[in-house]
Amino acid sequence: MNQKKGKQSLEFENPPSILSTASVVGKKEGEGPLRDYFDVIFEDPTLGKESWEEGESELVHQACIKAIEKSGLKKEEIRYVFAGDLLGQLIASTFGLKDMDIPLFGLYGACSTAGEGLALGAMTIAAGYAEQVLTVASSHFGSAEKQFRFPLEYGNQRPLSATWTVTGSGAFILSDKPGDIVIRGITTGTIVDYGVRDSMNMGAAMAPAAAALIYQNLQDFQWKPSDYDRIITGDLGKVGKGILIKLLNDNGYDIMDQHMDCGIEIYDNDVQDTHSGGSGCGCSAVTMAGYVMEKLRTREWNRVLFVPTGALLSTVSFNEGQSVPGIAHGIIIENRGV
Question: Is the entire prediction scored with pTM above 0.90?
Answer without folding.
Answer: yes
